[in-house]
Amino acid sequence: MGYDRMIDELKVNLMELGLGQKEADVYLAMLQLGPSSVQEIADASAINRSTIYPVIDELQHRGLASTFEKGKKVLFAAENPQRLVSLVVHEFSHIEAKRNQLEISLPKLLAVFNTRNDKPRVRFFEGEEALEAVRDEVHESRDAIWEVYAVNERLIHIANTKGKERIERNRRAIGGRALMAIKPGCMPPYFDIGRHEARVMNYEQYPFSGDIAMTGNHLYVVSMEDPIMGIVVESKEMTSVFRALFEAAWSCAAAWMPPPGWGPPK
User: Fold this and answer.
1) What does pLDDT average to over the chain?
2) Which of 45, 110, 165, 229 is the most buried (most CB within 10 A)?
3) Contacts of 228 (CB under 8 A, 6+ apart)
4) What is the DSSP letter of 227?
5) How far apart are CA 41 and CA 35, in angstroms?
6) Which domains does the chain have, with CATH numbers?
7) What's the pLDDT tens digit per position in 196-224?
8) How far apart are CA 74 and CA 37, in angstroms?
9) Looking at the DSSP assignment, which residues form a beta bridge with residue 122?
10) Under 8 Å CB-to-CB from 259, ≥6 apart: which residues?
């Protein structure tokens, strides 16, 4: 690996740890220079001298730079990179404190949210992270979940990459009905068969890639093809329409029995 390429990768790594672009440039310049004047650091980092002082001040605040006098000169130096470990620990503690505060505030925020009658009744989402948020919302429901979905390579890929989160959601789920269209050669991701009735429909006759879930007065419709997209509808009337369609499909579907080897991931 060339030296310049290594420096570029280190810059990216520092920014992923929370440093700004200019902070990463200046810190790397200081590491390479050793104790140096502001002008030398500005030249090495290609940052204007008039704007570099706040950057150095921020590095000092983070404990990543120090200053000292040598004769009549004021020099600056990078602190040992081991300081980055304590920086990460501090950031983690800060995030944990925010999470604890959110847990305290969330019930009150929800109470305010639920008193409003003008909440949006249709929401759109896109991408895997949005999908995970919606899946969490579905499994937080206190009502049974009726769901029809395709078991294909796309679903299995998402289920495998989100294994722990999916298992935790399954533990929270009340139960319900699962109507699956299973593509030949694909194994359905594990779910608690004791809490879910399961039936199967012919994938080759009704091929699709997506998921429709109903719980309470909420309807969730998801397309698993890239880009992942979906809608959430809060409507008793709209959900009842899809429940009727689900019932019709359910009545024609065959009972599903887990095949040999199917079970929770080890």
Assistant:
1) 85
2) 45
3) 126, 127, 128, 130, 131, 222
4) S
5) 9
6) 3-81 (1.10.10.10), 121-255 (3.30.870.10)
7) 899 999 999 988 999 999 999 999 999 98
8) 7
9) 233
10) 187
